[in-house]
Automatic annotation (TrEMBL):
<dbReference type="InterPro" id="IPR001209">
    <property type="entry name" value="Ribosomal_uS14"/>
</dbReference>
<dbReference type="GO" id="GO:0003735">
    <property type="term" value="F:structural constituent of ribosome"/>
</dbReference>
<dbReference type="InterPro" id="IPR018271">
    <property type="entry name" value="Ribosomal_uS14_CS"/>
</dbReference>
<keyword id="KW-0694">RNA-binding</keyword>
<protein>
    <recommendedName>
        <fullName>Small ribosomal subunit protein uS14c</fullName>
    </recommendedName>
</protein>
<keyword id="KW-0699">rRNA-binding</keyword>
<dbReference type="GO" id="GO:0006412">
    <property type="term" value="P:translation"/>
</dbReference>
<keyword id="KW-0150">Chloroplast</keyword>
<dbReference type="InterPro" id="IPR023036">
    <property type="entry name" value="Ribosomal_uS14_bac/plastid"/>
</dbReference>
<keyword id="KW-0934">Plastid</keyword>
<comment type="subunit">
    <text>Part of the 30S ribosomal subunit.</text>
</comment>
<comment type="similarity">
    <text>Belongs to the universal ribosomal protein uS14 family.</text>
</comment>
<dbReference type="Pfam" id="PF00253">
    <property type="entry name" value="Ribosomal_S14"/>
</dbReference>
<dbReference type="GO" id="GO:0015935">
    <property type="term" value="C:small ribosomal subunit"/>
</dbReference>
<keyword id="KW-0687">Ribonucleoprotein</keyword>
<comment type="function">
    <text>Binds 16S rRNA, required for the assembly of 30S particles.</text>
</comment>
<dbReference type="GO" id="GO:0009507">
    <property type="term" value="C:chloroplast"/>
</dbReference>
Amino acid sequence: MAKKSLIEKEKRKKELVKRYDAIRQSLKRQIKSSLSIQSKLTISNKLQSLPRSSAPVRLRNRCSLTGRPRSNYRDFGLSRHVLREMAHTCLLPGVSKSSW
């Protein structure tokens, strides 16, 4: 189980990314459409003045049940430990344990 403080910090980052997403996208479109270098520089300075944590790159995928930050499967949103346990108890439809 991950520390609750890190999980809460990640939730706050997600909210921040969601809040600044429209502003960030519009500034990026303006940079692409502007022709002069000076206007591109001023727009990029506005983009850089946004909070750092509002960039989607700073988000970390975590397990939805345990909060584990590593070895997550995107399709399920679970870590490998939880995925294996749920597959063994037949809680995931269409997933079966393979052995050879």
